[in-house]
Amino acid sequence: MAGAFPPSLEILVTHLMKLPTIGRRSAERLAFHLLKSPREQSVELSEAVVRMKDRLRRCSRCFNITEDDPCAICRDPSRDSKILCVVEDAPDALAVESAGGFRGRYHVLEGCLSPLKGVTAGDLHIAELDERVASEGVEELILAMNPSVDGEATALFVTQRYAPKGLRLSRIALGLPMGGSLEYADEQTLQHALSGRTPISGRES
Amino acid sequence: MAGAFPPSLEILVTHLMKLPTIGRRSAERLAFHLLKSPREQSVELSEAVVRMKDRLRRCSRCFNITEDDPCAICRDPSRDSKILCVVEDAPDALAVESAGGFRGRYHVLEGCLSPLKGVTAGDLHIAELDERVASEGVEELILAMNPSVDGEATALFVTQRYAPKGLRLSRIALGLPMGGSLEYADEQTLQHALSGRTPISGRES
Would the CB atoms of A1 and B94 count as touching at under 8 Å? Predict the structure, then answer.
């Protein structure tokens, strides 16, 4: 529908199409929605984008995203500094935090090892993790990388680096998601679900 | 995931969720994308939203959206002023225009009759269409309302209003879309496709 659009509408559509999962049709629908909605709503959205970019930075200790440095979790004295949850990137840390129940702190690697993309340990915040392990009395690392080839490689790398130093290490469980079904689970997930089975408490007692 | 988000990120997610088809998860994905992308890209998107709102207005003649009034189509002397394509709203006019092949002009009603929503002829640009029919030498109206109950009602209303004035009236064809299949077409579409069948030229000659 390109040619018929007024220039400012076409430019907006082009910019919206740079967003993930937004194709031409979706971009047009969003643009028409903004066109019809009150000016105020568009201005607020527009300002929220730039404000987010300007306010957010990386925490200099855990590399999670934050408005203040160090971040609220690193500053919170009630969080257990002996346990670090190691994640690939900020959205992963936010997901674990939102799930609730974890009272330790985080360490965001800002990526994962990927020989194909040329990402090595030097590109991740591994040196900073060394430093924290040495200076903060860390006793346990919970590895919460994504269950992908690169995520597994990164978990293996971290394990081999810190296990010899006497830290407790664990990997978050792989298995069926809540609401998932055995019938549609892929083989790898099922294998992990089987090998990672947990004893039933009735049997233990 | 709400609680764990830094405020400026949470605000952006809230604003993105006001957009159609964007739920919490999609809004988060878009926000994280903007977070990771260069600041410039976010600023450009942000400016494009506000610029679009500020520059676009309705053409005072045809009520299509435009940056200049009257719009480029109304100003273009090569367009046939005797034929008006009547549509519900601006995206419909842009869709017809982008399809190409139409050399007349448009009239955007800015809505369609809807007894349920309390939309009457007085809420649409019907008076302005009367005026154009009277003053611009219009001879033909192509009714391109959506194939919905309200769209059909609006087409019927326009037909009853202008047929007595001696104008040629036509309704865009309803039938199977390109790539559609008989097997999955609904009954109404098939009925329209049958009753609106077109003679095959080989037979005519």
Answer: yes
Interface check for A156 against chain B (CB to CB < 8 A): the answer is no
Determine the residue among B36, B50, B73 to mutate to test chain A binding: the one whose Cβ has the most chain A Cβ atoms within 10 Å. Answer: B50
The residues in B 63-102 lying below 8 A from A, measured between CB atoms, are 65-67, 90-91, 94-95, 97-98
CB contact under 8 A, A1 and B44: no
> Containing H/E element for B65?
strand B65-66
Report the pLDDT averaged over residues B104-121: 94
DSSP state of A177: P
**What is each CA distance from A54 to A47, B9, B17, B38, B39, in whole angstroms?**
10, 11, 21, 11, 8
Domain B2-55, CATH: 1.10.8.420
Is it true that A2-55 and A62-201 share their CATH fold?
A: no
- Give the strand pairing for B140-143 and B104-108: unpaired
- For the complex shown, is ipTM > 0.90? no
| A3 touches B: beta carbon within 8 Å | yes
Answer whether CATH 3.40.50.300 is correct for domain B62-201.
no
CA distance B91 to B108: 10
Q: What is the pLDDT of residues A73-115, one digit of tens each?
A: 999 999 999 999 999 999 999 989 988 889 999 999 999 999 8
What are the boundaries of each domain within chain B? 2-55, 62-201
Nearest to B12 among A5, A52, A95 (CB): A52
